[in-house]
Amino acid sequence: MTVPGELNISPRLLLGPGPGDVHPRVLTAMATPLVGHLDPQFLAIMNDTQEMLRQTFGTTNHLTLPISATGMAGMECCLVNLLEPGDKIVVCCAGYFGQRLIEVAGRTGATVTELHQPWGQVFDLDMIRQALQTVRPHRTRRDVHRRLAAARRCRQAVPRVRRAAAGRCGHFAGLRAPEGR
């Protein structure tokens, strides 16, 4: 068996939705020595990262965490850690990822109430309120949105739900998140 030579990929300009070009500072950081997940330096970096994420999302939630994975893996991580068998959840589904959330929530043993809209349509606040009053989920509500308007509408509809999760994968750094959330 021959050992292949050094990997040498010519530069590319990536303009699609992902993967994207990586800033040279990131590439330099990736070339630094690895540290373990319990190393004091790693913990300091994680604390700084969490603080920056809290500022970006406009929250004081201590459990704001980066997840190094696909958006779907992040959504699954959220649901399987929030839901337990018998919990009730309302999922607003307007496409592929909403359907995936329904499947993941169902696998946790939660009772899933599905609200459906055609792709690109915004959920009506009254529809969400009615579902929440009927179902009375005591733990969580999960929605996937790519537009700021959809995010605001979902937040307006559920001010009293104890735990809520909202995906920001598609527009993470392009939003000005409201203060104090």
What's this, in brief?
This protein is of the alpha/beta class and 181 residues long. It has helices at residues 24-30, 40-57, 71-82, 96-107, 125-135, 148-157; strands spanning 88-93, 111-116, 140-143, 165-166. The protein folds into 2 domains: 37-66; 71-168, Aspartate Aminotransferase, domain 2, CATH 3.40.640.10.
Tell me the strand order in the biggest sheet.
2-1-3-4
Number of helices: 6
CATH superfamily of the largest domain: Type I PLP-dependent aspartate aminotransferase-like (Major domain)
What is the highest CATH level, the class of the largest domain? Alpha Beta
| Global mean pLDDT | 79
Helix amount: 25-40%
**How many β strands by DSSP?**
4
Q: How large a portion of the residues is in β-strands, by DSSP E?
A: 5-15%
Rg, Cα atoms, Å: 20 Å
Q: Please, how many domains?
A: 2
Q: Per CATH, which architecture of the largest domain?
A: 3-Layer(aba) Sandwich
Shape designation: extended
- Low-pLDDT parts are 140-148
Give the termini separation: 57 Å
